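Subject: Interface between my chains keeps coming out wrong

I've been trying for a while to get a sensible model of this assembly. When I model each chain on its own everything looks fine, but I need the whole thing in one frame so I can look at the contacts. Pasting all components below, labels as-is. Any help appreciated, I'm running out of ideas.
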Amino acid sequence: MKFEAVTIKDIAKALGLSTSTVSRALRDSYEISEETKQLVLNYAKEINYRPNPIALSLKEKRSRTIGVVVSEIANSFFSQTINGIESIAHSKGYNVMITQSLESYEREVSNMQFLSSRSIDGCLVSVSVETENYDHILDLHKRGFNIVSFDRIIEPIETHKVKVDNFKGAYDATEHLIKNGYKNIAILVSGASLSITKERLAGYQKALEDYNIKVNDKFLRVCSHAGMTYEEVEQAMNELMTMKPRLDAVFSASDKLTTSLVKYCKLKKINIPETIGVIGYSNVDFMELLTPALSVVRQPAFEMGRVATELLLNMIESKRPVTDFENIILHTELIVRDSSAKKK
Amino acid sequence: MKFEAVTIKDIAKALGLSTSTVSRALRDSYEISEETKQLVLNYAKEINYRPNPIALSLKEKRSRTIGVVVSEIANSFFSQTINGIESIAHSKGYNVMITQSLESYEREVSNMQFLSSRSIDGCLVSVSVETENYDHILDLHKRGFNIVSFDRIIEPIETHKVKVDNFKGAYDATEHLIKNGYKNIAILVSGASLSITKERLAGYQKALEDYNIKVNDKFLRVCSHAGMTYEEVEQAMNELMTMKPRLDAVFSASDKLTTSLVKYCKLKKINIPETIGVIGYSNVDFMELLTPALSVVRQPAFEMGRVATELLLNMIESKRPVTDFENIILHTELIVRDSSAKKK
DNA sequence: TTTATTTACGCAATCGTTATCGTTAAATGC
DNA sequence: GCATTTAACGATAACGATTGCGTAAATAAA
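Reply #2:
Try treating it as a single job with all components included. I did that and got this:
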C-alpha cells in the first residue's frame, strides 16, 4: 500500500495554472497577482496541501531537521537531554530525529549513516562505550557535516563541545565521602575509552591524593559495556566485596552503573550506608525515593541539550564556515542524601 | 555550511559512462557487462558512494523507514516498547524515526505531520492524553497511510491494534488488594479520553462489584495531564487523603502516576502498606528497589513493540490492501511485593 | 504611433535516482 | 551476404518543488 499526498501539480491542474505560478503564489511572490494568489491559497487550504519536505530536501540540500545519536533513550540523563534538544529545536522550527546505539559501535555507525544520508542539517553526538575509532564521525565532519559533540566527547574533533565538569563532579563526590569518614572507596566506571570515564576517574584519584589516601587499583572496576546488563555490575561488585582491606564506600561514575549498584545492594541485602556508603552520578529522579535516599552527582541534562542545540543551529545557520569553537563546561550538582551519611 | 555527498553522477563523469549505466551496474543489472560492473563497483567503493535515500524516497515514495509517536520517551514503558520496535525494524532493514508528544495534542499533530510528509512507510501510534479528536490520524489513514495503533488505542480506526488486557490487569490488581484486606481502595487514572483509562477503570470497578464493595466516586481521581507534572498527582492525593471514610489503598492506573504516587508517599512520610496499600501499573525496573518494594502490574512492553512492528511491516509489504485486521491483546503480569501486603 | 516598461505568467533546469525506450555494434541465422 | 537477434549502453522522463529566464499582453513613456 502506498500513500499519495497532494502536490503542487494537483493544484496547478485543477486551477489551470502552471506549477511555477502555484509555487510562487504559495510563497507570496510579488510576481503573482493578488487574485491568483487568493485563488491558489484558498484551494490549497481546501485540499489540505502540504509541501513535500523530501522534494525540498533534495533540492535545497537542507531539511530543517537535526539528528541525535545517544547510547540509550531509556537512560534518564539522555532522555532529559533530548527534551532540552527538542525544546530549542522546535522553537526555531527544526525537527529532531532521535537514534540510539544501545552502546553498540556498529549501531552507532549505521545511525550516523542513516542520519547523514537523510539530508539532516546537523547532528548532536554522544558516542557509545564501544566506540574507539571516530572515523565514521570525523569523515562526515571533514566533508562539511555539522556536528556538535556532547557529554561523551569526541576529543580529536574540531567543533563545539558541551559537557559537564566531570572531574570536579567526581572530585566533589569523593571528597564528600572522605569527609564523612570513608577511607576505602571503590569506583565503578564505564568503558575506558569514554571521555567521561577518564575525567571522572581522574577526579576521584585527585581527591584521594589530596587527602593522602593511597589510590588502590584493586578498588577500580571498569564496566566495559557501560552497565548495559546488570550482570556486568554484579560481577564487578562481587569482586570488589572480597577485597582486603574491605571497602567501605562505592562511587559509581555513571547513571546506568549507579542504578545497577543500588539494585545489587538491595538484592544482596547490603546495608547502605552502614556497610558501604554509596554515591554516584545519576539523573534518575527516583533516587531520592529510595531508602536510604541516594546521594548523587546530578548533571544539568536538559540545559546541556539546550546549549548543544543552540550551538548546532548557529553553525547550521552561519553563512561562513565556523572556525571558532566553543568548549562549554557546565556544572554538576552534588546532592547529599542518606546513602553517604557520616560514618559512625 | 552545507555537506555534499558523492552521487551517481560523479561516478559517471569519472568513468566516462552515463548515469543509467552506473545505476544499473550498481544494481547488478543483466544489461551491463561484467567488466563495466566491476569498474563501477570498485570506483564506488573507493570514493565511498552511498545512494541518496532522499532521492530514492522521492522517486519510490517509500523509504524503508517507519515512524513512532509516543507520549514520552522517558517513560519506561515507552522506551521499552521502542526497543522492541527497533529490534524488529532493524532486523528487517527498516529504520525508525521516534517522536514524542509530551502529552500535547498540538505536538502529536505536528509529529504526525512531520512523519507523514517524510515518506515514511508507516507509523506506530500511541496517542497523547489530550487527544480527543483523531482526524489528524484518520485522515492520513483514509488516504492509505499505514498505521498501527498500540497501547493507547484509537478506537474508531480500522487497522491493526495491539494492547494489553487493561481490564484484567486492573481487575487483578484490585482483587489482590481486596483479598489482602483492603476495602477503601482509591484509584488514580489518566485523562478520561484514553482507552487505557476507560478499560483499567472498568476493571477496577468490576472487581469491587464482584466483591460487594460499593464503588465510591470520591475515590476516583482523574489526572488530566496523565501525571506529566508531580503537582497534578500531589493535588489528587491531597484530596483523596481527606476523604471519609479514610482510604486504605491506592491503585494507580499508569506508569507515570505510579511513580508520582510513590514520591508523594515518601515526601509526606505516609507508611506503605500500613497507612495505605499501594499497587500500580508500572514498567519501571526500579520499583523493586524501593522500601517497601512496590507491587505492580507490568506490561510486556518490549513484546508489544515487536508485535506492533511486525503487523505494520506486514501491511507495508503487502501487495494488496489489508482488510483483515488483528486485534492483539497481550497479558499483563501481576507482581506482588511488599507495598500491598496483607492488612493486619 | 512607436518604443519602453511593467505585469503576470509559463517553460525548463535542477536536486539524485531509476525505468522506459531507444540506439549502436557485434553476433547469429539462413 | 543480408536480415535478425542480442548484448551493452545512452538519452530522457519522472518524483515534487523552486527559480532563472523568456514572453505575451497591458500599460506608460516618448
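Reply #3:
Confirming on my end. Chain B touches chain A through 59 residues (CB under 8 Å).
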